[in-house]
Amino acid sequence: MEACRRCPRLVAWREQVAREKRAAFADQEYWGRPLPGFGDPAARIALLGLAPAAHGGNRTGRVFTGDRSGDFLFAALARAGLANQSESRSRDDGLTLHDCWITAAVRCAPPANRPTSQERDNCLPWSARELELLGEVRVIVCLGAFAWDAALRLIGAPRPWPRFAHGAEAAPLLGCFHPSQQNTFTGRLTEPMIDAVLARALELASAV
Q: N or C, which end of the chain is more exposed by having fewer CB within 10 Å?
């Protein structure tokens, strides 16, 4: 998967960002490749995000690591007992997940954080194989509408498809607003809101 070059636009962007870098990270070696998922192989809960951030996961090599979205998400996972610490700075920072696996609908950083539908579909086989290998996943928490639409395709849901909303449920899917700065800084997604979604995910995982 890390050698995948199916999407020319994404390949060009992820590698350009890795070469040019952000000034604050000029001394760091960027990952600049597709990102694998991360977490507990026996997880009953999977979190599906949008795509790696250009200077977050695309830099650190781990999903939601090294950016503001990850700061918000891992703090919530720690409060829920799904992570051993509330920060994620690098691949070797000691973070471990319990009963939880995190991945993304698109594995490469897209320009302007906007992958195309074709790029999403190109990545679906990787996600399908990932879920097959995990085996114990009972709930997929979809972080945003893009992840929700990808997950519906991933599980082969019959149409008409349920619409995404925060807190929406369409077994095995559970909707949550994406922990982007646009949502967390504006109050569209608050700590109590994501805490409630994770509590519901744990409840559903335990009930199956």
A: C
With b for 16 or more beta-carbon neighbours within 10 A and e for fewer, the 30-60 pattern comes to: bbbbbbebbbbeebbbbbbbbbbbbbbbbbb
Question: How is the chain split into domains, by residue range?
Answer: 8-207
pLDDT per residue, tens digit, the chain (208 aa), is 778 999 999 999 999 999 999 999 999 999 999 999 999 999 999 999 999 999 999 999 999 999 999 999 999 999 999 999 999 999 999 999 999 999 999 999 999 999 999 999 999 999 999 999 999 999 999 999 999 999 999 999 999 999 999 999 999 999 999 999 999 999 999 999 999 999 999 999 998 5
The answer to whether the bond into 160 is cis (omega within 30° of 0) is yes
Q: Is the domain 8-207 a CATH 2.40.50.100 member?
A: no
